[in-house]
Amino acid sequence: MSELLSRRLALLGEPANQSLLRHCLHGIERECLRVDAIGQLAQTPHPPALGSALTHAQITTDYSEALLEFITPAETDPAATLADLERIQRFACATLDGEYLWSPSMPCPLPAEEDIPIARYGSSHIGRLKHVYRKGLALRYGKTMQCIAGIHYNFSLPEALWPLLQQAEDDTRSARDFQSERYIALIRNFRRYSWLLMYLFGASPALDKSFLRDRPHHLQELDAETLYLPWATSLRMSDLGYQNNAQAGLTPCYNDLASYTDSLRRAVSTPYAPYTEIGTRRDGEWLQLNTNVLQIENEYYSNIRPKRVTGSGERPIQALVARGVQYVEVRCLDIDPFLPLGIDLDEARFLDAFLLFCALEDSPCLAPDECAGCTGNFLKVVREGRRPGLHLQRQGKPVLFADWAGELLERLQPCAELLDRAYGGDGYASALHAQQAKVANPDLTPSARVLAALRERGESFRAFALRQSLVHAESFRARPLGEEERQAFEAEARASLAEQAELERRDSGSFDDFVAAYQASIQTAGA
């Protein structure tokens, strides 16, 4: 343990401060495809009974009309966050008519590219903007890649923790700058160590053969319908042969907030020649929002993001520049197909301990060679994380994966113990112990369990995923919501539809002018 981490842990462990960590905030965004009874992508519109995908706070869509996204409120206890997610999914399962939630991250067998429905959000200017943005994603990356689903874990440390640390460390920066710097430091450590999350929670070692659309690849054939890599943990987080030259040159620096926001602002303002050749419109129809490296800042694909809750009409970069970092969004988590929610309390608690460690441990700035090493370690684990004798690179030298993983888990133990003292019980220590068991026995990892299930039952990936989808649907429908909760969800769905209709009624001016104003707003961030 570093001296800095030891001091910070001791400060938070003082009797007067022990309860502070009970005020961490947790939120989950869980994506999942809607499929029909035989596991084909649903071609139906977003069900009106679920409300408006534009304005509903908890049920929306991501890329495709068939790609649902469930969003929990922020809660101080991860158990409460998971309970929120369960209620949302129970309502959705009860509402879907003859359709199911696809259980893993990698998609079901998909129709032809042109038949994958892009999400629609109505006729308001903001609704049309969201649709055109997704048309741009299809043009730039293809629709197939956009149908991969995942879990995003939102986490913040208590606001009262930052002034406590700042005073103890005699830091003279503004409170906003100190807090932002600590979150950026957390992200740097996340970059250093997130390969561990892919080993512990990666759950996509196999996929349906149709996903690759007959493109060249390096995967192996498990059966006539299934491709895989024998030691892979998360094919979802590998490149899968998809490379985008525009984003390939975009490497935001996580050494301070200003350099991060500046790099994204340049990306959403800098033309990219292949996109310029296509243009934004053809025959009067919008194809993409602009011809820049990124249409909007959220197009940048990253494993973790610094975030700040935005105001009405405010862009993410504007919020970060104006008020600093408020929380982080972890974006590299696979959906565990064995779990009805795709995630469980052990995983959530471990993520808390891991992120607390990343925030409190010393986090020097990342030199270019270390940045490349972090990326290399991450990709090595997603492709072959369970390979016996696997080595990673640490400070330019090879280190045995199992040794480094074991050391890192030991370093997390004081953080887990601190969280247990805050919340009571031994839930965090137990969650940590469960992950240590996976390092000792790779067969316990979700990726190994998926491959074992396919082999033991002689199932293809699509058959396994559909079976799990039906099992989860049955478990949710066997425990329907109480009447009061069901009515509350139905009322929220109706209210969201009314809100969308009001937005459409109030809109004025042209959509072209709206897009132009939206594009110009990025230049005002920090001005």
- The number of distinct helices, counting runs of at least 4 residues, comes to 18
Low-confidence stretches: none
CATH class: Alpha Beta
**What is the level-2 CATH architecture name?**
2-Layer Sandwich
Quaternary structure type: single chain
What integer value in Å does the Rg equal?
23 Å
Largest sheet: 7 strands, antiparallel
CATH fold type: Creatine Kinase, Chain A, domain 2
* Total number of distinct structural domains: 1
Instruction: Estimate the helix proportion, in percent.
Output: 40-55%
* Large-scale geometry: globular
DSSP E strands, number: 14
Give the overall average pLDDT: 95
What is the beta-strand fraction? 5-15%
What's the end-to-end separation, in Å? 42 Å
Based on secondary structure, the structural category is alpha+beta
List keywords for this structure.
Glutamate--cysteine ligase, 527 residues, EC 6.3.2.2, Glut_cys_ligase, alpha+beta, 47% helix, ligase, Creatine Kinase, Chain A, domain 2, single chain, three-stranded antiparallel beta sheet, seven-stranded antiparallel beta sheet, glutamate-cysteine ligase activity, 14 strands
